[in-house]
Design brief:
The chain has no helices and 11 strands. By secondary structure, the chain is mainly beta.
């Protein structure tokens, strides 16, 4: 019943920008941390950025200074602003959220979005 839906991916030239969005919907009691992961062809999935419910953030070294994660708790939405994009940023980006559903208040589950493709190429 709880779902995460990503949007905003696409094709962009090196040096360009994209803004990813991920909205959680369903019978949600609370959301703790939210984050973005990515997986490039032939590579393992890696954490890109994460943000706690209180707004504390953490970034992979490769994106520090270029990417910014933020969230709108009223909308159950997390964003990833990606600037100065490089070809190495090309990957499928996945949204992740730690959510307590209303039906199971005391339990926290990891939910994943379906992924959105980001391609940085000239």
């Amino acid at each position: 019943q709880v779902q995460l839906v990503e949007s905003g991916g696409g094709l962009v030239q090196p040096g360009g920008s994209l803004r990813l969005s991920c909205a959680a919907s369903g019978s949600i009691f609370s959301i703790n941390a939210m984050g973005w992961y990515r997986q490039a062809p032939g590579k393992q999935r890696e954490l890109v950025a994460a943000i706690t419910s209180g707004g504390s953030t953490n970034y992979a070294d490769s994106v520090k200074g270029r990417f910014t994660i933020s969230r709108d708790n009223a909308k159950n939405t997390v964003y990833l602003q990606m600037n100065s994009l490089k070809p190495e940023d090309t990957a499928v980006y996945y949204c992740n959220a730690e959510i307590s559903p209303i039906t199971t208040l005391q339990y926290i589950y990891d939910y994943w979005g379906q992924g959105t493709q980001v391609t940085v190429s000239s």
